[in-house]
């Protein structure tokens, strides 16, 4: 599998990683909607990944209340040296007033808990799951820096930050000589291209590798959603989870993009999801894409999204189908490409 450099670090990662949101299921409707893989089945999925050269596995302490990390730890037992583990903290994990956020207190506890559940003494990539506006950024960065120096984390990243959140953090890392974010885990897909407005140019300028989550737009680009057809009976889109948490997408945009994906899929002999993922792999700043899998069939199909490339004409067709009007000031800047060229 192709390897890419993670941001400005010297660390190489495969272009695909397996998300473990489907591990466990827990008692939450949110995670049950993703899946509920047991330890035995998760081990089988890990076996398939390693055989295909996919060595990176992404988790978070909040996935199924810690069960996902525990199951991942069991699945990689005895082969820790063959895998890259990325996990996340910041969101609430407990009932106490300090059981949330990116304070020193919470991050130290979160990292220690993740290490214990994963059954490892270090985490390859540790990411903040979201921005904490109540904790001084300096406190957060110094804590992460201390954890790197202690050997508990090797690289740090963030997730779901806005442009100014990320840029201010990078500036403070430079000012104080602290560890720097080398990755930003962000939502990005053919029906969710907001990432391109500001975060992509920032990533290219500051050498921050992008780790993409939900490349199929919360299940809308599986090939099962098409104009004039009802939603499949078994679809995450039928759950309250998507209504409450999923990114809103206009139906017409989904249909337009899927129509274009159908044409490209027919030309390439690939599936709609494979084409959608391959399009992302050709976007600037993208280092890794997190794929999910409820079962072996889904996993094998997603693994076949790599090892080939769309043509320039096919990429252009998908670009055109997924284009939307940019918000200000981005539409204004695009009118002056001589001085504000789009990211390449």
Please give a structural write-up.
The chain is an alpha/beta fold and 344 residues long. It has one domain (3-336): TIM Barrel, CATH 3.20.20.100. 39% of the residues lie in helices and 15% in strands. The protein contains 13 helices and 10 strands. The protein has helices spanning 29-32, 39-51, 67-75, 104-118, 137-149, 163-176, 199-206, 240-245, 251-268, 272-281, 296-303, 312-322, 330-333, and strands at residues 3-5, 12-14, 16-19, 56-58, 84-89, 123-128, 153-159, 181-187, 209-213, 286-291. An 8-stranded parallel β-barrel has the order 3-4-5-6-7-8-9-10, surrounded by 6 helices. A two-stranded antiparallel sheet has the order 1-2. Helix 7 (199-206) links the parallel strand 8 (181-187) and strand 9 (209-213). Helix 2 (39-51) runs parallel beside helix 11 (296-303), helix 9 packs across helix 10 (272-281) and helix 9 packs antiparallel against helix 12. It is globular and about 50 Å long.
List keywords for this structure.
alpha/beta, two-stranded antiparallel sheet, 344 residues, 8-stranded parallel β-barrel
What helical percentage do the residues reach? 25-40%
Helix segment count?
13
How many DSSP E strands? Answer: 10
The CATH architecture category equals: Alpha-Beta Barrel
Could you report the average pLDDT, rounded to the nearest whole number?
A: 93
Contiguous low-pLDDT stretches (5 residues minimum) are none
CATH topology: TIM Barrel
Per CATH, the class reads Alpha Beta
The largest sheet, given as strand count, sense and whether it forms a barrel, is:
8 strands, parallel, barrel
CA gyration radius, whole angstroms:
20 Å
Along the chain, the helix and strand elements come as EEEHHEHEHEHEHEHEHHHEHHH
What proportion strand? 5-15%
CATH homologous superfamily placement:
NADP-dependent oxidoreductase domain
Q: How many structural domains are formed by the residues?
A: 1
Structural class: alpha/beta
- The shape is globular
Distance between the termini: 23 Å
Strand order of the largest sheet: 3-4-5-6-7-8-9-10
């Amino acid at each position: 599998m192709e390897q890419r450099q993670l941001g400005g670090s010297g660390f190489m990662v495969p272009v695909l990683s397996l998300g473990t949101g489907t591990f466990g299921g827990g008692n939450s409707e949110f995670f049950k909607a993703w899946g509920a893989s047991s330890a035995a089945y998760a081990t089988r999925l890990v076996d398939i990944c390693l055989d295909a050269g996919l060595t990176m596995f992404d988790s978070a302490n909040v996935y199924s209340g810690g069960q996902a990390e525990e199951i991942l730890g069991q699945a990689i037992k005895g082969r820790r040296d063959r895998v890259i583990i990325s996990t996340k903290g910041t969101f609430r994990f407990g009932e106490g007033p300090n059981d949330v956020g990116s304070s020193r207190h919470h991050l130290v506890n979160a990292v220690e808990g993740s290490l214990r559940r994963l059954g490892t003494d270090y985490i390859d990539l540790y990411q903040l799951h979201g921005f904490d506006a109540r904790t001084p950024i300096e406190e957060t960065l110094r804590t992460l820096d201390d954890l790197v120096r202690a050997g508990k984390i090797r690289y740090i990243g963030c997730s779901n930050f806005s442009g100014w959140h990320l840029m201010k953090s990078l500036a403070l890392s430079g000012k104080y000589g602290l560890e720097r974010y080398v990755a930003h885990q962000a939502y990005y897909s053919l029906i969710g291209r907001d990432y391109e407005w500001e975060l992509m140019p920032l990533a290219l300028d500051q050498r921050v590798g992008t780790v993409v989550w939900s490349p199929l737009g919360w299940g809308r680009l599986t090939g099962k959603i098409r104009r004039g057809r009802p939603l499949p009976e078994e679809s995450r889109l039928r759950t309250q989870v998507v209504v409450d948490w999923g990114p809103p997408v206009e139906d017409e945009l989904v249909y337009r993009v899927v129509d274009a994906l159908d044409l490209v899929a027919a030309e390439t002999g690939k599936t709609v999801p494979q084409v959608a993922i391959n399009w992302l792999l050709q976007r600037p700043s993208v280092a890794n894409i997190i794929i999910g899998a409820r079962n072996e069939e889904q996993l094998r199909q997603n693994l076949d999204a790599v090892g080939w490339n769309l043509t320039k004409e096919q990429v252009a067709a998908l670009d055109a189908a997924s284009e939307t009007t940019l918000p200000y000031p981005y539409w204004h800047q695009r009118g002056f490409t001589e001085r504000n060229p789009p990211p390449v």
